[in-house]
Amino acid sequence: MNWLAHVLLSKRDVEYQLGNLLADPMKGRVWDGAPQSIEQGMLMHKAIDAFTDSHAVVAKSKSRFEFKGYLKGVVVDLLYDHFLAVHWQSFSETPLDNMLAIFHQESDLLIADFPPKAHRVISRVIETNMLGSYAEFSGFVAALLRVELRLSDRIKAKDSMNHYVPTIESTYEQFESDFLQFFPQLIEHFKNHPLGSQSNNYLI
């Protein structure tokens, strides 16, 4: 799953949410002086990714791309965030815009003391409303292009995000069905995990 899911699959605690989001860009390393909830969020991120990467439904989504591709996992992660935004009201009683407004406001008050890289990442998320953009298919495609810009020349020589869009467009409903089958199971994994929570969250 990508960043929107990680923010939702968190305790109702902005530090925990930030740890969950920052685990990838910070490579899972907690900086000196970081609150314990940041570390808990990073550990929850790893648990979410492990569950996702080993799930049969996610493997089925990847197999819908009937060609060799190095970026299938990244594309499916982003696509599932798109479907999460589209179906948000099925998973949270708090409207997406409201939750993101709270997350942005509370994050902005904290990041001044964060390491430069973490500060840059969260500032960009806030300033561009990146997580809110996933609800539109065009926002999802823009996210693919942002990832493409960060790829090494070695990966670009082997694969491109452009290869994936036609398959997604032609089998959109099948991918959507995969997500709707998978995500409730991921929610239960979060709620029942020792670092998760049954009730202290934004989930229904």
Key attributes of the depicted protein:
mainly alpha
What would you say about this model in short?
With 204 residues, this protein is mainly α. It has 11 helices and no strands.
Topology, please?
Layout: H1 3-8, H2 14-22, H3 36-53, H4 56-63, H5 72-86, H6 96-110, H7 116-128, H8 137-150, H9 153-156, H10 165-170, H11 172-192
Written account of the structure:
The model has no long low-confidence stretch (mean pLDDT 97). Helix 2 (14-22) crosses helix 3 (36-53), helix 2 crosses helix 6 and helix 5 (72-86) packs across helix 11. The chain is mainly alpha-helical and 204 residues long. The protein has a domain at 55-192. It is globular, with a radius of gyration of 16 Å. The protein has helices at 3-8, 14-22, 36-53, 56-63, 72-86, 96-110, 116-128, 137-150, 153-156, 165-170, 172-192. It is built from 11 helices and no strands. The longest helix is centred in the C-terminal third of the chain and has 21 residues, at 172-192.
* DSSP strand count: 0
Rg calc: 16 Å
Mean pLDDT, all residues: 97
Structural class: mainly alpha
Beta fraction: under 5%
| Biggest sheet architecture | none
What global shape is seen? globular
What are the secondary-structure elements, in order, as H or E?
A: HHHHHHHHHHH
Distance between the termini: 19 Å
Low-confidence stretches: none
Helix content: 55-70%
Enumerate how many helices there are, as a single number. Answer: 11
